[in-house]
Amino acid sequence: MYAEHEQEAPARSEAAPTAFRAAEKLYQLRREQIFRQRKGKRVSKGVTVRATDLTSVLDLGLAGEERPLPLGVARLPAQLGVPSCMPPSAAAYAFDAHPGLLLVRGALPPGLQRQLVMEAFTRFCEPPNHTTLTRTHPAGLPGIWAATQQGLRLQPAGQAACEAASGATGTDVSTPDGAPSDGSASSGRTTSIWGAGGGGPTADSLLRKLRWATLGPPYDWTQRRYLREAVHDPLPPQLRSLATELAGLAASLLGAAAAAGSGGGGVADGAASCRNGAAEGSLGGASQAFCPDAALVNFYYEGDTLNGHVDDAENSLGQPLVSLSLGCDAVFLIGGHTRDVPPTPLLLRSGDAVVLAGDARRCYHGVPRVLTDRPLPAALRADGREGGSSSSDAGNAAAFAPFARHLQHCRINISVRDTR
Ligand SMILES: O=C(O)CCC(=O)C(=O)O
């Protein structure tokens, strides 16, 4: 991971921002006041969002979508092996200007997207995982999603009891086993800190403060290290295998593209994998197989940004970073080894995966804009259904509906790493 508050170099004046900063400013959400004249006076009419020109943002297509390829971007041949777990419409891209960067449009099938969204709110942000709120609520806020759905508030007495319990045992107060993954009816300890009345903060206001959660060993932004000694659950196996598949795909596709002289250079040939725990080959010069053990889950709402940074806290930067997008579209900037290199803006949509491997692993990247004003894909909408119209489809759609409403103004990113 990276420093929590990335700063521009102090010597730089605002008059001469870096190329990366200039691009961030171009895409950031800006609100401006609008005025009208009334009785000879200038009166505020309210605030509006300044229109952003997104024409330079590369919006690459799925398989079957015929779009001209921008110069320096190569679509990698499907026969090189898109894993069977990915939809046939997935399409992979390499970039001459960014060796080691792989974008897989539509990598995650809709059902998997919905599942990861539900887990992000009901499991990933639950103790023992650390979140933005761990500093203020050291025992975590178990059941927070269910509490938002029921309009509950944090109860001071319940919170104190929860903290005491945590202090006494030093262990987790996570959602009890068997709690439904939609968080609809958490029971036992998890509901005790929430109640209908009182003056405590609403669960909804707390959820909006949740900017990140860590999976696997928690990351400490002050010490800039992974806290292996802290109580934690292992990275969910599904994320581990998904990231491993994508890293393997990046190794074979980018390796082949580099050999053919188009994009992808900077990644060592051969698939990297710890499928079934077996080490095979290497990626990006790493001497060991890629075995992801941690992830950062970022939650973005309107106006939220992630400043340009390099993820450099992992022990081996030779291992790739695999980043999954869910929910609202976003503008992703990928630059070079310094902020002076002009970045390429890419549009990321729900279900897309980005692999930063080889040279790209050491490059500045960030998210200056989340586009909360666009419709979500049908599979993520409250009324969206995939496949048939059986009662279980209808049940799944009903269970997903509250998440779909929330996603209309939220983006989730899960970046999976090998920290060892
Ligand atoms: O949200 C994204 O797409 C990027 C996330 C990222 O850069 C990170 O977690 O390091």
TrEMBL record:
Q: Check the UniProt entry and state the signal peptide residues, or none.
A: none
A Pfam family reported for this protein in Swiss-Prot or TrEMBL: 2OG-FeII_Oxy_2
Could you list the residue ranges forming a coiled coil in this record?
none
Note accompanying the cofactor annotation: Binds 1 Fe(2+) ion per subunit.
A single GO cellular-component term from the record reads: cytoplasm
The cofactors required by this protein are: Fe(2+)
Annotated family? Belongs to the alkB family.
What is the name attached to this protein's record? Alpha-ketoglutarate-dependent dioxygenase alkB
* Source organism per UniProt: Micractinium conductrix
- Source organism phylogeny: Eukaryota, Viridiplantae, Chlorophyta, core chlorophytes, Trebouxiophyceae
